[in-house]
Structure formats: C-alpha cells, structure tokens
Amino acid sequence: MNSRLSVAAVSAVSLVALMGGTRVATAQESDPAPKSCDGVRLTGELPAPAPGQAVSGQITIGPDCEPELGSVRRGPASDRPARTATTTTTAAATAAGHQLRGWNEMYDCCNIRMTGLYTASSWDTADGRVTTAGTTATQEWNREPWDAGWSLTSQTSKDDCATDCAEVNSEAHADFAYQGVFDPTGDWYDNTHHSYVQLTADGTASCRFDVELRHTFVGWNWRYGCE
What is the CA angle 117-121-122, rounded to 5? Predict the structure, then answer.
C-alpha cells in the first residue's frame, strides 16, 4: 500500500499520514515528568467498509513522547466485545437496512482499555433518500478495585436528521476524568473522545474520530475503527 508522511511545525509538531485513511497527531508543550508526556489531539478518518468487513487504525505514544502512526488495517469484521454499542431498535434497524458500528478507544501501555466511546448506526434508503436513520452511543471506562480510576464526566450525542434525509450526520462525545493510583489529585489525566458518522442515501458511510488527552504516557495507544 502506498504511503506518504509529511512533517510540519506550526507552534507544535504535526504528523500526517495517508494510508487508506488519515490520522493527524499534534504534540503540544513538553512535560518534564519521566515517561509522562504532554497533551495531544489525535484524529482518524476511515471509509466505512463493505458489509462483513472492518477497517481500523492505531496511534501509539512512542518513547520520545511523539505519536507513532500505524497503518490502516482491513479485514473481516470480528465479534466486538459486549461493551460495543448495539444497533438502535428504531424502525431504521430492519433486516433490509444498513448497519455500521464504530469504536474509539484509549489503551494504556499494559493493554488495558482506559476509556472508550462506541457508536452503532442503522439506516434505510429508498428513492435516493435516507428514509429512517438512528445512531446510539455508549461509553465504557476502567475502574480500579479501590473505587478509583476513570469516570465519565459528560456525554452527548445527536443526529442532524432522522427521517426523509438526503444524508445523516451523527456525532457523539464523551469526556472522562481520572483519579487513582497514578494521580490521586484528579487534575492530571483527562480523555475526551469524539466520534462522527455520515450515512448516505446510496448505502455508503464514513467514520471520523478524535481524542483529546490532557496528558499521556509512553506506550498509550489509541485504537479506532468501524465495521
């Protein structure tokens, strides 16, 4: 697969890679704490795969605190964990309709999922229109055994149209805060996830994801995709 990497400095370091999808990572001011890294905003955009297929991407915070861009992966859809949002039960979720699930997850260096935002979309089409559509969003986060860890602080979701639409644009947002063994103050870590889905009348779709991290740690990795 052809790839292209460009590097530019605009009051920060920006990395852009085109490998069948787009991922943008912007590193901000540095942090002197060992292995703890500065805040970062990561963006990924993927074309929705054909039915029964999945497409995903990953970005890892490297040893120098710079985001390392992974290639886009394609393959058969897998059984996602139960925490993944299930398709809406509205009229849009019919056997003859279209369905799409997305995931937007942040993992630590020990492969533990810290925070995640999940969407599930269903839509029907007829005569060049989206007749009915709906997207549901769910959130998951990791807790520590002593009643600490990550917690959900806010969440929103909306569709710009639900019936007789030229296209449907859905978005979901979730903000998570951390207070626990790695930061008892609760002021250091904060993950904000954003997911966007566009559903079209020809049955195709696209997925876009963002995550904003107040601080990161070497080995953290962001995983996103849709199927």
Answer: 165
Nearest partner of 59 among 7, 88, 24, judged by Cα:
24
Residue 144, H or E segment: strand 143-144
Q: What is the pLDDT of residue 6?
A: 25
Query: DSSP code of 147?
Result: T
pLDDT tens by residue, 74-93 = 989 876 543 455 444 333 34
Residue 100, SS3 per DSSP = strand
CA 15 to centroid of chain Cα atoms: 18
Q: Which residues contact 187 (CB under 8 A, 6 or more apart)?
A: none
Q: How far apart are CA 41 and CA 57, in angstroms?
A: 15
Where residue 65 falls (left for φ over 0; alpha for ψ -120 to 50; beta otherwise) is left
Q: How many whole angstroms separate alpha carbon 93 and alpha carbon 53?
A: 19
